[in-house]
Amino acid sequence: MELEARLPQRLIEAARLGLWAAAFGFGLLSLALARSQPAGSFAGRSWVAALATLAAGWGMIGAGLHVWLRRPAGRSGYLLAVAGIGWFFVEWSNPGIGNSAAFTFGLLTWALAPPLVAHAVVAYPFGSLRLLDRVALLSAYVGSGFVLGLLPALFFDPHRQACNLCPANLLAIQSNQEVVDAFNRWGVRLGLVWTIALAALAVLRLVRASPPMRRTVAPVLLGGVVYLAPVWTDFAHSLPRGVLSNDP
Q1: pTM for the complete prediction?
Q2: Which among 91, 94, 100, 196 has a CA at the least distance from the CA of 143?
Q3: CB of 154 within 8 A of CB of 170?
Q4: Whole-angstrom Cα distance, residue 104 to residue 96?
Q5: How many angstroms separate the CA atoms of 185 and 99, rounded?
Q6: pLDDT tens, position by position, 18-32
């Protein structure tokens, strides 16, 4: 009877460890995808940049695993891991990916890494959020997941909009480049707002923390602010052209 009682718990633990292994594996899969079509990869043709991308995503997943092992009942470990997985989403919108389902997934998720990272940062260390945190994160997810993700995808037909090498977009209901451009412009504008808001909330949480808690959360909160600064810069750089993308 004791063995039977312990067996489900062991299965649950094995499943959880399998999920962590899958998270690291998703990074390797994304790297393989990027290297198979480097012309459309965020890292380009550079192996150094590709390995740096892998290291950044794996680093956050590893941090999440570390936090989870210390606080299995908390949510921060999972949030950090999801942010690390989201780091690789941008590679799935690669025009040369050759698979419609994977390409469509990339169109939906390619801009989600910053909100996911910010979510993990402002919720650290217990996974809890204040009202202002929720409002700012909601605007970030709407701006990146809907305005830059879902809504443009509905009006993007690659073969009618100068992307003959792209696979089919399974979500396209109409081909309208003007609508796609409008959503992209608004997504960039919103990005300039929610990045500042989330960085300010991270600093505010740090200032309001007690001295012992401040020592605990400072590396994560300050790291998040340092990360959001170049994210804001990327949005600002993209504002004149109205589209968020890499360039020379």
Answers
A1: 0.90
A2: 196
A3: no
A4: 12
A5: 27
A6: 888 999 999 999 988
